[in-house]
Amino acid sequence: MMTPQAAQLDSAHDWGAEPLVSFLLIVCITVLVYLLYGADSDGPSDVYVARHSVRPVTNALALAGDHISVVTLLTTTGAVALGGYDGITPVIGVVGALGVLAFLAQPLRGIGRYTLGDTLGARFPGTAARVAATVATLCFCLPMTVVQLIVAGGSVSALLGISDINGATQVCTGLIGALMICVVALSGMRGNTVVQAIKTVVLLFAMMVLASQVLNAYGWNANRLLDAAARNSPDPEHFYEPGLLNGGGTNGFLSQLSQQITVILGSAVAPHMLMRLNTAEDGTSARRMVKYTIGLLTFFCVLVVLVGLGASALVGGKSILTAESRELTAIPLLAERVADTATGGGMILALVVPMVFLTSLTVVAALTLSSAASLAHDVCAQMGGKAATNELRAMRWSAVLFGALAVTLSVELQGEPLTFLVQFAVTAAAAAILPALVFELFWSGFTRAGMLWSVYGGLGCCVVLQFFSPSVSGTPASVFPDADFAWFPFESTGLVAIPVGFLLGWVASRLTPTGSPAEVDYVELEKRALTDSVALRDRTR
Known about the structure:
The chain has 541 residues and is mostly helical. It has 24 helices and no strands. The chain has helices at 4-15, 18-36, 44-49, 56-67, 70-83, 85-88, 92-111, 116-121, 127-159, 168-186, 189-217, 222-231, 249-268, 271-277, 283-315, 317-322, 330-341, 345-380, 388-412, 419-442, 448-467, 494-511, 522-531, 533-540. Helix 13 crosses helix 20 (419-442) and helix 15 packs across helix 17. The longest helix has 36 residues, at 345-380. The protein starts with a helix and ends with a helix.
């Protein structure tokens, strides 16, 4: 019996050169599009947010691309394949995050301009709010970028059939990272918006092809597909019952609840998602953009469930479990199985390879742009580099340094457990960024001290709880499997960290006076949020 890796190498000869040719072709086309649709000028408004001029439909496609990372694509599909009910329910969180963002979109665009630092600085002028925003941005973007690069490198090399070649995965990881640095430094938001929109179209089309192949294998009969998925899963009798992935009882329920809440709230206020809102003309356009995106992601979630069930039915849950990256291999293994049985299988892989590559590259580019813009606009520009040319030069160097660090970490951490990085990043956004934004927009008693305690206190709580969680020690899948110093029971710490972030902001605000010279009056801020005064001023420039 061949191992999955041996099967990849053997079948690669039958697929022909289509996957490799499509990969090289999409790399060339992507770079060309980034250059053609780069910034029209050297102004920060053009580079950071495409002059706030992106139309709602295009922005909806781009926002969907920002939201669907390669980790989201692969882990959700793998969770459906391995966990059945437990895998299907978290898919709802993909759309739920957009529901939260739709509620916040109009006021955030009303007071926002470029970065998270601009949004917090709208009420608390000065460097403290901007530095806090930059720290929160980096705490989210760096771990997520590292994970995206690791998963992308492994998936692309597997789909090309070269994963067993020594150093091939690291080369793919480094290539994607190098391209990311180039496109962010040379293009900016306008180019990334176009490529994100293209990525969403390619992603949905490729998933439709995979889903149609799965349904065709079972005569387009959903009942047969459901039966086959359960029969070939790791636990056929309990595949459609809760508790398969997270365990039963109260502890399993609370673990899944914590993960679901954290993903919904953390993804909604991810820094690159907030930056995307500022590409809209005004608050009304921003909310319309989010509504369109909800429709796109609802369709995507249906495809994820079909493809996940297809992976369980056609590949088998045990085969996915024995693969090196477990649930992350569900789509690559399904694509290979379909390519083995379908006519023109090489063309199917030739479509799936660009899907995975574009999904990773565009999100990594968005995370890098958000981090570089925050460092340049919120830190460097406040330290004396006020001129636009100096700020953009700082942004490009920040992108290079951030990208180099992310690529180095991703190559070094190849093959290591990634759960704790994803959990920390998403929880950091939910526990540090969300409380500060909600209090700023909707509470007149929120103070500068409350904002700082929300951000730094929420981040500190995430660090402590994550370090002492099962994702770091105490289980075979932990970072330190041979040690056990975990006293927090859940891998996802949001169930505690998010309330702590809100509580610290509330307590600090109650203990400090409002109306200091370093704060903007809440009534004035509310007026700006409701009347889109910042957006109107930007359009007149």
